[in-house]
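Morning run. Coffee first, then this:
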Amino acid sequence: MWKGIGVNIDTRRVNGSIRKFRDELEFFSSLGFDYVEIPLAGLDVVVRGRIIERRMKRILDILNEFEIKRTVHAPDVVNLKHSTNPWHYRVMESTIIFANRIGAEVVVYHCGTVDHRLDIRQKTQVQSEIQALRKLGKMAEKHGVVIGVENLFQPATEVVELVSEVNHPNVRMTLDFGHLFIYCEYTGADFYEQIEHALPVTAELHVSDNFAEAPQTYQDVPDEEPYRFVYGIGDLHLPLGEGDIPYGRILPLVKKRGFEGIVVLEVNSMDRFKEDYADSLKLLKRYANSGNGRRTKK
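And here it is:
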């Protein structure tokens, strides 16, 4: 049984506006979402790794107006493989403290990428991330949260291996189907095998839709949303059923494997899709409650 169905508040959409933050909480609560995923970088509550208490109080006052439960997304740019920049680690510490302060259950962290421009071996960068996550796992345990390492540009199996190496109960995985779908189409990896391998260590799922078109294959198209949508390029974060991700097969698989974590709908462009959130939530609830939902794609 899933713990609940959540939805993300996007960093760029809120962009530091407390008013927009409250408006989105009100909207998502009215639709019936169980959780909301809060972006640390979207609230200007941490500056130079320090929590600004005045801002923190305003956020807590707003959150207390709603019964919706919470998870937190660490800033996308945090990269624990880059130990030469100690601020990545410090920002993660602040994110965990913030999550504890607002009663969040999971902190999502994008799995770090290797920077081949650095005069540091790849295996050394990987070990830096493992060691950092071991320490942060202890901190997360103390603060009552779980770190979910999200697959980004890598296969899910790589994140599973990382989580296994860290070997701490408070460091698990956030499995993002949109990211994985693009990766598998681009590399030829088996999408369903990747999912099967990841589910046992997954604390949170990210669901959205896209067409599996990797940006690398369309370098002549500007990386701007209007053009990306027209061409169907990259991780578009579409409502479920508007792309090609086969949720009619994925969601029953998730149910069959006994996933008991949080499922978060990630639709980033509210301007385009505000009227479509309810349909995606309805679909997810149908699978959560019965396992027999409408097929979105074959």
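The chain has one domain: 4-290. Good start to the day.
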